[in-house]
Amino acid sequence: MPAQNLKYAYFPGCVAQGACKELYQSTQALTQALGIELVELKKAACCGSGTFKEDSQLLEDTVNARNIALAEELNLTLLTHCSTCQGVIGSVDERLKQATHKDPHYVEKVNSLLVTEGCSPYRGTTEVKHLLYALVTDYGLEEIQRRVTKSLQGLKCAAFYGCYLLRAQSSMPYDDPLRPEAMENVFRTLGATPVYYRGRTQCCGWPLASYATTESFKMAGMHITEAISQGADCLVTPCPLCHLNLDSRQPEVEKVIGKKLGLPVLHLSQLIALSLGIPPKQLGLERHIVSTKPILEKLGIV
Q1: Where does residue 64 rank: exposed (0-12), middle (13-18), buried (19+ CB within 10 A)?
Q2: What's the pLDDT tens digit per position in 9-55?
Q3: In what order do the strands lie in the sheet with 193-195?
């Protein structure tokens, strides 16, 4: 499909409309600059971020079958910029597609609940795709490179993928779940230098934050410290929940590990948008807890 004709059913998720509004803001700015059309699913529900299944797998499947069905009504791919949403909704889609052949009665049960509530049934006719992979596989890195007006040369970027993006589904058609390169390839396309470190594919600690806060912050601190030790100027993540633990709580992380960190954490959409010449104010960079000013200064933007 030609890049200029890309159109998606957009699932922004809860965090991007609340604690990380800059992600919603920067995604809008980026996709508009690239000519990608987003049809926001205003009636979509929270995916549950993996917690619904703790009470009921049927609950998680039904809620997210409805989300998928909203995209199916539009005959569009469901697009999200949250790796947690990608992992949860994508795994539901995968499970229900398999059940269509192996356990059709289960799919009928899910759909009977949806129809009872006046919702469209799940048909299994679309796919769930993260913004990262939409840009890499649908839009294309060469096309992005042609649109770069501000090279990020000299900026050392450390990816933090988030565990849901890589391993929530049994198959990962776009990348190697253990040795991914999609983010690093994006960095190279923008002129930046990828930084490799052990924690880039591990959990940020967010799932532990509500009941094992110290352990959660120690995990986050370990990853940030490793990235700094490898020379990173910033972390870049495709997951707003990772962003919350790595950026918003970085001052608390510093207290727990007894070390000053101060490493900026960018959303993937913000980094790409900067290379397209979109002003920082339009990307919500002033909303971050850890100042992004050092990045802008290094790039000569401020």
Answers
A1: buried
A2: 999 999 999 999 999 999 999 999 999 999 999 999 999 988 888 88
A3: 193-195, 156-159, 234-237, 265-267
Pair 81, 269: CB distance under 8 Å: yes
CA distance 169 to 151: 34
- Tens of pLDDT, residues 75-93: 999 999 999 999 999 999 9
Q: Tell if the pTM clears 0.85, that is, is over it.
A: yes
Alpha helices in 47-103 (DSSP H): 52-55, 57-73, 83-102
Alpha helices in 179-265 (DSSP H): 182-190, 213-229, 240-243, 250-257
The reported pLDDT for the residue numbered 4 is 55
88 neighbors 168 (Cβ within 8 angstroms): yes
CA dist., res. 226 & res. 215, Å (int): 17
From the list 270, 293, 274, the residue with the least C-alpha distance to 26 is 270
CB atoms < 10 A from the CB of 109, how many? 14
The amino acid sitting at 274 is L
Per the listing, tokens 């795709």 go with 129
Token representation of residue 13:
């998720």
| CB count in 10 Å sphere of residue 239 | 32
> CA 32, CA 51: separation in Å to the nearest integer?
33
Q: What is residue 25's three-state secondary structure? A: helix
* Cross-strand partners of 234: 157
* HSE-CB for 281 with a 13 A CA cutoff: 1
